[in-house]
Every structure is written in C-alpha cells, then in structure tokens.
Specification:
Chain lengths: 296, 289
C-alpha cells in the first residue's frame, strides 16, 4: 500500500491535464523518464450487497465505498482516506444521477455525505444534485466534487459514464452530442470543474449493458454485478467499466453486437482533452471482494 | 407534393390524437380541444388511464426520455404524446408514447432503428420484446412500454398498441428506396431507413467525417447481406441531384469506402467480409461490372 499512497497535492491536481494524470497512479508520469502516465482504479464487488430485487444494502454499500477508498488512497483506514481527499474547509458537491430507471442509490449518496461530515465538512457545505447543479448554491461555491453514477448504455454516447455525468454543468446538452458525444471531455476543463473532482465512483451494482425503446431500459439488460469502480481519474474509471459492459454484451449477444455507437468519448477525453488514461495497458485495476464473473 | 399530402393527413391524425389525449378519461381538456374518441379506451385489459397525458416538444423531449430523444429528432420529430396506464395490483404500469414524425418514411425509419423482438400485428408493423411494443402507422411511431414484465402486461400492451394504431386513420408507405435493396442474401430484419450518419453509426460505425454528405433531405437505406462469397452492409443513398452525389462519391472514395454512383444514387458496401464480397453487391445494387 505504501508505494501507492498519494499526496494530498496529487489528488488536488487531478483533472488538470495529462501532465498530472501521471500522478494518479503514483508510479509513472511525464517526468518519470518520459514514460506515459498510468492510472489506478479500484474495482470492489460484494456478492451479498444486493437483495433479490436488486436493491443495495445501505450498510454493505457503505462498507464497499470505504474499503475502496482506503485501497485507492493507500491509507490505513477509511477516516484517514477521506481526510486525504477532503478537508473541513471544503464545500463539496456530490454530483449524482437521478435517471429514474437506474439512479445513483440514495444509500451511496448518504454514505458519502456521512463521511464528508466525519471529515468535518459542514452539513451546509455539502449538497447532492444532478439536473440543478448550475443553480445549486453549494455547487456554485464548491471547492470539490464527488462524481457518481451507475454505468449504462446510451443511444448517443454509447455509454453513460462518469465523464458524461458532468453534462448538467453545461448550458445546452445537445452542444455536446455531436460525434457520439466526443466533446464530453471538454466539460472537465471548464473553470468551475477543472481540478475539483476528487473522486469518481462508477456504480456497477446492476449495470445496464443494452438499451431498448424510448425509455432505454429493460430489466432484461441489467445484471447483478454488485460492484463499484473508484478512481481519481474519470477516464480510467470509465474505460474499465466499458470493458465490463463489452464483455457482458459478448456473453449475451455473441460476437456481432458490439456497442453502437462506440463510447469513443472515453478515449477522446484522454487523447484530445488530457483528463485521464484510457489505455487498458496503462490502467492498474486493484480488485477487492467477489471475484467470480468479474468479466475483466 | 407528397409532403403536402402528409401535412394534410397529419392534421387529421393530430385531431384524432388530440381527442384521445383529451378525452379518454371522460373529461375534455380545453387546451387540446376535440371530442371524445370512442376508439381509444380509457381501460384496456384491466389497465386504466391514470393521468391526463403529456405533450413533449422538440425541447422538452430531452428531459422526458434522457438518452434516446436524439433518435426521434434524427427523423424529424414534431412532438410526442404520452399517457400512463395503471394495471391490476402487482402488475406494472404501461406507458403509451406516440411520436409524430415528419413523414411516414420517418416513422418507418424510427421503427427500423430497433428491429429486435417478435413480429406482432399492430399498425403497419409491430415488434414486441422484453416488455416493449414498437409499431408505426402513417407518420406516427408508437411505443407501449411495460415497466415490468408479465404475460398479462404483454397482452395489455398489445391491446393498447392496437387501439392506438386503430385511432390513426392515415396509412403510410414504406420508403421506395427500401425496395431497391437486392433481395439475394439480404436479412430483411436488418434493414434500416435513415438520414444521418449518427444513426448509421448505430448500425455500422463509419466515424464522423460525414464523407457521404448525410443530411435531413437525404434518404438512405442499409441492410446486411450474407452470400456464399461473403457478406457486408449495403448502403443506398439518394441525393437531391447528381452534383451532390458526385461530391459524396469523391469524398467517400477518398475515405476508402467501396462505392459506386449512378446519377444521384450512391451504393456503398460497409464492413465487407471478405473485402471482395462487396463488389457483387455493388453490381446488383447499381449495375455495372
């Protein structure tokens, strides 16, 4: 663990470009002999976290979150790990996703809020929001964000990802829909966001691997994966989630139904906007918990 | 001329559906007008209307169906009429959505966007899969979505879909370009009618250079072939004039697409396997050697 421990400054610099993306893994970077940057994500799964209806146990989910953060940050316990990420003086927006077919679990939002309060962040300086972030007073004065959403397929972007989750900070969503949502990574360079997203949590409890119909949802196309993917680098988090979805589609459909359109906004967020690492070869996946049928 | 005809028919159907929206719960909504339409029931197989319905326009549709609105917009969506039906205890709600598209060809195009499922006799073509019924009739695309799956919900969804389709008097035509696809080796369930590269990319990914000069006024049809010599996707594109087709031909050739032109029509083979398999498809589609 000690080798992977990140400094507070490292975390605060995340999201500011390729040069700092190299710090995410705490190993190789642009200054490290010219090696390309690497990233590190934590995939944590728990077979027992979901009940028969696919609803997450709040305590189990909270435990998963904390175990994942301990591993991600490289601290001895959850309290220390959260203190690495946030300070009492922070104003924190928890950017959630309220899509009613597959929302961010309220229990996860509450767990995040609880831990932030344990760090010492004032309750009045914490808010959870999705569609109204532009007018939310806490988000407007936020010094830090947590970005969390379930992973699902999406007709226009290929996948609804952590990268895409920040689109509600923009004035007009269709401006980011061209080229299969290729410009989504640019949102992360906006002044109100750049360098402030300190944690991304991609919810993989019941990921959605195929969309159908105007409401884009069928129980047929979700499955109990029981996971979370945590990372400081949103691109690495999303790229890892995308591999799991592709693997699930191959299992379900066979070889002839790759994601269409391909979620290339993930790669473009790396290569064009420099907000993280998309190459699987440069992403270290730390695996915790349930290993069976991990698909990656 | 055909466009004017559709606009006229559209006005009739709008009236019918406006009446449906307004009155199937037994009351009249002043903002929609119209009279009670006996064809659309307030109850279907034990499912009853639970709201007055919503109308979504080209802006509000994005908040209603986050993640899919672009598909309808790519086919000239005018508006979407939506109603919710509540079922017997323990059964899922049904959501009826009727999308008014720019033309019958566009309604057919939306219908072809997702061709999974079993064929059902609803409207001018219907498919049912995993709690979702899709159909088209005239310049309307219909959807009945069950918020859960059961045999009773499936029967109710089909009944509701048929009632909605019956309320649409207009009958549309399948775009003539569809019939131009050679039949030999074609999997008819893969045929899509479209106008934009974004929609094509959902079938076979071309990237976003728009070498084929797609646009709202350009009709295209694509289908997958499997023949003894190989397979691939055959794309036919009709341009408004020869000059535009020639421009697209040049750009597509430069992009490495196997393409042929005859007047204002282009034929292209995408993702051929093996590479040579595309040649016979092009000959069949557009002539030449």
């Amino acid at each position: 663990m000690g080798n992977n421990k990140l400094s507070r400054r490292d975390f605060f610099s995340v999201g500011t470009g390729a040069a700092t993306a190299g710090l995410i893994g705490g190993r190789a970077g642009a200054d490290d002999g010219g090696k390309p940057p690497t990233s590190r994500v934590v995939l944590i799964r728990d077979r027992e976290v979901l009940d028969n209806e696919g609803k997450a146990d709040p305590k189990g989910l909270h435990r998963m979150l904390n175990k994942g953060i301990v591993e991600l940050v490289g601290e001895k316990d959850a309290a220390a790990a959260w203190r690495q990420l946030f300070s009492p003086s922070d104003v924190v927006g928890i950017k959630s996703n309220e899509w009613r077919r597959l929302p961010t679990p309220a229990a996860l939002e509450e767990a995040m809020r609880f831990e932030l309060e344990q760090v010492g962040v004032a309750p009045t300086d914490i808010a959870v929001d999705d569609r109204q972030v532009k007018s939310n007073p806490v988000f407007r004065r936020a010094t830090a964000f947590i970005n969390t959403r379930p992973l699902r397929t999406h007709d226009w972007s290929g996948l609804g990802t952590c990268i895409k989750n920040l689109i509600t900070f923009t004035e007009r969503y269709p401006d980011y829909h061209g080229d299969s949502c290729a410009p989504l990574g640019s949102i992360w360079l906006r002044p109100e966001i750049k360098g402030k997203v300190r944690l991304n949590v991609l919810v993989m409890l019941t990921p959605q691997f195929h969309s159908t119909g105007p409401h884009s949802f069928s129980q047929e196309f979700i499955w109990p994966y029981g996971g979370l993917i945590l990372g400081v680098d949103p691109v690495a988090v999303d790229a890892t989630g995308a591999r799991i979805i592709e693997a699930k589609r191959k299992l379900y459909f066979g070889d002839d139904r790759p994601m269409r359109p391909p979620p290339h906004h993930i790669q473009i967020a790396d290569t064009q906007y420099g907000i993280g690492v998309s190459d699987p070869e440069r992403i270290e996946i730390v695996r915790l918990g349930w290993k069976e049928d991990a698909l990656i | 001329m055909a466009r004017r005809k559709w606009i006229f028919l559209s006005a009739i159907v709008v009236g019918l559906l406006g009446a449906m929206m307004a009155c199937s719960d037994g009351t009249t909504k002043s903002d929609l007008g119209g009279t009670v339409d006996p064809v659309i029931p307030a109850e279907v197989a034990g499912w009853r209307l639970v709201d007055d319905g919503q109308i979504y326009d080209t802006e509000s549709i994005y908040s209603y169906i986050d993640g899919h609105a672009e598909v309808y917009m790519a086919y000239g969506m005018v508006r979407c009429l939506s109603r919710r039906y509540s079922g017997p205890e323990g059964e899922p709600d049904l959501v009826l959505d009727l999308f008014e598209q720019a033309s019958a060809a566009d309604a057919f195009g939306v219908f072809t966007h997702d061709r999974d499922g079993e064929e059902v006799d609803v409207g001018q073509g219907g498919l049912f899969r995993h709690g979702w019924l899709s159909f088209w009739k005239g310049h309307w695309f219909g959807s009945v979505y069950a918020e859960g799956e059961s045999e009773a919900a499936k029967k109710a969804a089909l009944a509701l879909g048929r009632a909605a389709a019956d309320a649409i008097a207009e009958v549309g035509e399948v775009p003539p370009l569809v019939a131009e696809l050679p039949v030999d080796g074609l999997d008819p369930r893969t045929v899509r009618f479209l106008h934009t590269q974004e929609i094509l990319n959902g079938v076979v990914y071309l990237g976003y250079e728009n070498a084929l000069q797609f646009g709202p006024e350009i009709d295209a049809v694509v289908g997958r072939y499997q023949r003894p010599e190989g397979g691939g996707w055959l794309l036919l594109v009709d341009y408004p004039d020869d000059a535009t087709a020639e421009l697209a031909e040049g750009a597509a050739t430069e992009a490495g697409i196997n393409i042929r032109r005859k007047g204002s029509r282009l034929a292209a083979v995408l993702a051929p396997e093996p590479q040579a398999a595309g040649d016979s498809l092009l000959v069949d589609a557009i002539g030449g050697e």
